[in-house]
Design goal:
The protein is mainly α. The chain folds into two domains: 50 residues, no CATH class; 34 residues. Helix content is 46%, strand content 4%. A two-stranded antiparallel ribbon has the order 1-2. The longest helix has 36 residues.
Length: 106
């Protein structure tokens, strides 16, 4: 479908621009709803809901972080490497231990 835009006035072009923008938004919204319905149907066929699979956004439980470092003398004391450094980690590094030496060996 070709439209000769050269013969349209500025007001007609702006109206056309608004109409096209609305049509694109409506199309994207329809496609998003179709994709969501298909995902819900696939989850339901497998015996789940989308909330079961993906949580419910802000209130979904966070998975625990995996520990990255362990205390040099007590392997039960660990740190994920996120947030503030624990005192034992700071003390070990200040005493000359390399952070790499405190990494949990896999």
């Amino acid at each position: 479908m070709l439209i000769d835009l050269t013969n349209l006035s500025l007001d007609e072009l702006k109206t056309l621009q608004k109409d096209v923008s609305k049509a694109i938004s409506s199309f994207e919204s329809r496609k998003r709803k179709e994709a969501l319905a298909a995902a819900e149907a696939a989850a339901r066929d497998a015996g789940f809901s989308l909330n079961d699979l993906f949580g419910s956004g802000k209130n979904s439980p966070k998975l625990p972080s995996i520990p990255k470092y362990q205390h040099p003398e007590n392997a039960a004391i660990v740190w994920t490497g996120k947030g503030r450094q624990p005192a034992w980690f700071k003390e070990a590094v200040a005493a000359g231990t390399s952070p790499d030496d405190l990494l949990i060996k896999k």
